[in-house]
Each structure stands twice: as structure tokens, then as C-alpha cells.
Amino acid sequence: MPRMAARYMLSEHWDGKLPVDPFAIARSAGVTVEHDAEMEPKELGRFEFVDGKPHIYTNPNEPVSRLRYVVAHELGHFALEHGKRFVDTALQFWPVHYDRAEHQANQFALELLVPDFALNIMISKRNIMNFVRLTEIFAVSDLVMKHRLKKLKWIY
């Protein structure tokens, strides 16, 4: 389900350029994304409906590189219709999370930021096999790229 939701979001709201811009995708999908200066230091992001409209709030003290994943994760809560409100700390962003909704939101974020077809093209058609270069192209962390490469059986 997260994979299909991410593919749908990409097909409807992505401009086809790498790295995938989760902020632009959220805006295109009608989701407001903004910083919340009053967010607790341990909180990274929050999804909720405000006056019936979807909003993603991010912690302004986090680096943009991390916020890309946070927005993709929170967008997953929206796309997967998990409910009205989610507040996420670093614990919810572990790839192996036992809460079903959090695990699905993480899977959605991985699929959105590193689409399988785009990664496969970079490796098989463009012969880009350098790990660091791939993380730069997709603007993701080492952990995210490692997870995607394993999932797609490029590494074991």
C-alpha cells in the first residue's frame, strides 16, 4: 500500500526531476507545509488537519536534509489516510518501526524520495554505481540509500 500511494503521488505531483522535492509534491497535493517555531526540540514533524485542510509542520531547527525525509514521512500519513493528527519524534523515523502507521509512513517516504524506477535507471542505464554519488543524486542519507539498494537487491 505505501508503494502504490507513493507511486500515485509521484505520478500526479512530481516534476520528474531528481532529487524528488517532497515540499513541492506536498504543495501540489494541496498540503500546506510550514515550520512550527514552538515545536518541542525532540519533535521533527507533525501532520494534522486544520479547518479541514491538511498541514505538515516541521521543526525549524532541523537541517533541510532531514526535513526532506520528515516531510515525505508526514506526507505518507496524509496519502495513506492514517487519521487526523500525528506528532513524530526521531523514534518514529527508524526504518524498522513496530507501529503499523509509522512503518507505512516510513515505507512511503523511502519510495517517494528514491523511486525504484529512478534508482534502477541510474544504476543499470547510466552506470552510476558509486554509493556517495547516488546519495547526492537523490539527496538522501546513507541509511535511506542503503535501505533502498537492499530492498531492490542491488546490495545484500
From TrEMBL:
InterPro entries found in the cross-reference section: IrrE_HExxH, Rad_response_metalloprotease
Gene3D superfamilies named in the record: 1.10.10.2910
Residue ranges occupied by any IrrE N-terminal-like domain in the UniProt entry: 39-150
Residue ranges the record marks as coiled coil: none
Cited PANTHER family: ANTITOXIN HIGA1, BLL7220 PROTEIN
Name of the molecule in the record: IrrE N-terminal-like domain-containing protein
Species of the source: Caballeronia arvi
